[in-house]
Amino acid sequence: PLERAADAYVVRRGAGRTIVAGYPWFTDWGRDTFIAMRGLCTATGRLDVAGEILRAWSGEVSEGMLPNRFPDRGDAPEFNSVDASLWYVVAVHEYLQALADSGSQAHAADRDALASAVEAVLDGYAHGTRYRIRVDDDGLLSAGEPGVQLTWMDAKVGDWVVTPRIGKPVEVQALWLNALAAADDLLPDNTRWRDLFARGSSAFASRFWNKAAGCLYDVVDVDHEPGRVDGSMRPNQIFAVGGLPRSLLPAEQARQVVDVVEQTLWTPLGLRSLSPDDSGYRPRYRGGVRDRDGAYHQGTVWPWLAGPFVEAWIRVRGGTAQAKAEA
Questions:
Q1: Which residues on adjacent β-strands are paired with residue 209?
Q2: What angle in degrees, to the nearest 10, is found between the helix axes of 306-315 and 251-264?
Q3: pLDDT digit string (tens) for 166-205?
Q4: Of 89, 254, 103, nearest to 172 (Cα)?
Q5: Does residue 311 surpass a pLDDT of 50?
Q6: DSSP assignment, residue 40?
Q7: Is the preceding omega at residue 226 within 30 degrees of 0, hence cis?
Q8: Alpha carbon separation from 286 to 124, 266, 289, 291, 293 (Å, rounded)
Q9: pTM for the complete prediction?
Q10: Is 198 helix (H, G, I), strand (E, B) or coil?
C-alpha cells in the first residue's frame, strides 16, 4: 500500500520528478514535497526516485529560497515559505546518507548540483532574502513581515493571517540548525557553517527555554522585538527533539518538552495545533472558509506531527527496544 501511495503522488515534472501535495486540487508544494519524500522515498529505499526529485528542485533556488508552490499553469512560482528550503537541505543530507549506507554514492555531477543548491540556500539565508528572512546576531533565523504567512501554520483569509508567527519560530530554528549541521558534511571545506551552528545552538538553548512552563516558547523576538516571546503551547517545539536528525536540547529539557506535549497536545490521531487551555483554542474544524481557516492551526489535530512526536518520545527514553515496542 505504501508503494502504491508513493506511485500515486510522485509525478513527472519535465525530465525529473516531484511530489504533488494532493489530488485533484494541489500541484507540488516545496514544504510538502521535502517532508513527504523522506517517508515515501528515502525511508523505503526508493533512492533513485528521491534523487530525481532532489535534482529536479536543485535548479529552482532563488535568493536562497525554493518555491513553496508552483501554480497550476502560467503564473510565477510562489516563494512564501521560510522552511521549504530548510526541509530540502535536510532531505538532501538524508538521501546522501542513505546512499552511503546502501553501499552506493551519487554521481559526482549530481552531488555537486545538490551541494550547490544547499550552499545557495544557506548563503541566501545568511545574507538575507525575501520577507526579512535573515540570520540575526545570535545565529538564529529571523523571518516574517505583516501580511505574509511563512511557516507551515499558514492559514490566511483575505488580509487576515491567522497565526503570523513573525520573529523566530521554534521549528524554523530546529530546521536551520539541522541544515547547518548537515552542511558540515555536505560542504566540509566551508567552516563558517560550523561556527554559525555553534553560535545558534547556544542561543537556542538559552533563549527558547520557558522555565515556568517546562517547555519551549513558540516564537521569540516576536514581531522582531528583541526579548518579546510567545508562550503559546503548540506542537512546533517537538522538532527540537524529534522529527529531524539532530536533537537540540539537553536530556532533561528534552524529556520535559515531550512530557508537556504528550499531556496537552497528544491525541490518538496526532498532535493538536494549540492547547485546549488557550483562549484561542478552536475545538472543531467546520463551517465556512473563514471559520475553518480560523481553526486550522488553532486546535485542529495534524496526523503528520505524530511521526516527529513518536520519534521524540522514543529518543528521550534512550531508544530502547522496550520504548519502541510501547510507542
A1: 216
A2: 140
A3: 999 999 999 999 999 999 889 888 889 999 999 999 999 9
A4: 89
A5: yes
A6: I
A7: no
A8: 39, 21, 8, 7, 9
A9: 0.95
A10: helix
